[in-house]
Design brief:
Aminopeptidase, alpha+beta, five-stranded mixed sheet
Length: about 160
């Protein structure tokens, strides 16, 4: 199995949309009150959103291509300082996703490493990401890459 990691291109948008919809479904299954409900058109909406980031100098989207099929992607961006988040400038990994049948082959790790190096080359002093608390496999991957836990999001639903 040969896996090619490369910059995403417009021809990848349908695959990126499906992967984004998969992320949406996964998170919704973790917590139906916290995360958006997957709806019809989610894949095309996500594809359009990621397509708007393809030419941004502050964003990178890399895909993992396996047997000429997009098996995963990572989206990261340079972020300015944030008083709201009490942090200086940083690289931020927004998404990383790998299709079920391609997991446990190092693809997520390779995508993350590519994004981290892209951010490093552009002067990011640190890389930050958020991950769903129940997503143990992702958390283990991130820890193995050197990430440490620094914040915990807490949610309370306000019933009316």
């Amino acid at each position: 199995m040969t896996v090619l990691i490369r910059k995403a291109e417009p021809r990848d948008l349908a695959s990126l949309g499906r992967l984004g919809a998969m992320l949406l479904q996964t998170h919704y299954a973790f917590d139906r009150e916290r995360f958006l409900e997957p709806r019809e058109g989610a894949a095309s909406g996500y594809a359009a959103f990621l397509g708007s980031r393809l030419d941004s100098p502050d964003d990178c989207i890399f895909v993992a291509e396996m047997d000429r099929t997009v098996a995963g992607y990572v989206w990261a961006a340079l972020e300015p300082p944030s008083w709201k988040e009490l942090r200086g400038p940083a690289g931020f990994v927004h998404d990383v996703a790998v299709i079920e049948e391609a997991r446990r082959r190092g693809i997520g790790r390779r995508l993350m490493q590519e994004a981290i190096e892209w951010l490093r080359a552009r002067g990011a002093p640190r890389v930050i990401l958020w991950t769903a608390t129940p997503n143990e496999s992702a958390r283990a991957l991130f820890r193995s890459l050197g990430f440490r836990e620094t914040m915990v999001e807490m949610t309370m639903e306000l019933k009316r």
